[in-house]
Amino acid sequence: MTSEAALRRIIKIMSVLLCTALGVLAIFGGLYLKKNSSKDSPKKVSKDSSSKISAITTDADDVTTDAEDSQPQEPAPEPEPEPEPVDPVEARISQMSLHEKVCQLFIVTPEELAGDKSKTLTTAGLETKLALAETPVGGIIYFSDNLQNVDQTEKMLTQTKDFAKELGMPRLFISVDEEGGTVARCAEMLGLTQFADMYYYRDEGEETAYDNAFTIGTYLTELGFDLDFAPVADTWSNYFNTVIGTRAYSDDFEQSARLVASAVKGFKDSGVACTLKHFPGHGDTNDDSHLGSVYSYKSLEELEEQEYLAFESGIAAGADMVMVGHITMEGVDEQPASLSPVMVTEQLRENLGFNGVIITDSLEMGAIADNYPDGEAALLAFKAGCDMLLMPEDLNKAVSSIEKAVESGDIKEERIDESLRRIFALKGLS
Fold first, then answer.
1. Which residue of 1, 49, 127, 202 is 20 to 30 Å from 419, comparing CA positions?
2. Catalytic residue at 278?
3. Strand 389-390 with 106-108, pairing
4. Which of 59-68, 75-84, 294-303, 395-404 has the lowest mean pLDDT?
5. Is 123:156 a contact under the CB 8 Å cutoff?
6. How much is the pTM?
7. Residue 53: pLDDT above 60?
8. What are phi and psi of 410, to 5 degrees?
9. 290 is catalytic
10. How far apart are CA 142 and CA 220, in angstroms?
């Protein structure tokens, strides 16, 4: 090989080595620059890294919340209980003394209330007010002698009601016997609409029975009365009977039932409370209970098929009261019906389902007064199931007999409260 050829080969080898050296320097230089630049600029966080950080933070918050929840919490205050509504009837009864409760069971004449039956009262003055304060009865019944004219009657009744209100008493029953016909205290004395006995309208039907009762009830409410002891629910089935006779609506039991129901509706629509009388039926007796003992010889089965029909229809029509007569039930228990638990409680209250006020006929009548000492009849009638006691022969003795029975435990005071609930419901204290 010539010297010239050897020189070119050496130059070529050196060129290759120089290129290789420059390439190596370039690689190491780039690595150096990348390393230094990563120290001066923030690192980028990947999405996966961000999610992991968020999860860690959330877990930490949860731990904090759990820790807070584990701390004891003060109990929330309980809401105040709603006050129970007050029943005005129960509230009234709870505030009454035993004497006040017992007096509410009686309806008496103004003369009986004042303690002097020898005179006739036609006004309500200081004597009436003092008597009401001492003996706060449940009601007053007026008769023809108490009624002189319309103005006098209205003034007397209004003044009596005002006295009761001033004394803080429950509302008084202001009552009268106004059947129309033979027994019509107001029509007779005050020149108001007069009727024949109801028997004479029997063939004119139920509409006339309604109209007659509505007319009577309307003039009673205008005068100031709120309770009428009518209609007669007896059926005149014994033509020797004179105490009822044509006062009855019919001599047929089924017709009586229809007419009596219509009369009850007429009275009620007029605004006056009405009373079916004389349970269990006075139309089949021979005698007058005003004068002495009277008897019925019918069995309970016969009463259900006959006398009860008019009472049942009247009760269904909405009668407010039922008056129990003093008929001795020879076919049942040989006791006056008004004093008989069988007739008052088992038959009228339970069998006929009457839930209203049960009142006796007048306790002054011969059938009672001639056979039972003062006060005893009122006690027996109340124990039999009557709610109200009409015209005892001696009011003070009658009141005292029931008070003593409560004090001795013979009667529970709750029994009086039961009657007062019915009486006050009818008076509108509800």
1. 127
2. no
3. parallel
4. 59-68
5. yes
6. 0.81
7. no
8. -70, -30
9. yes
10. 12
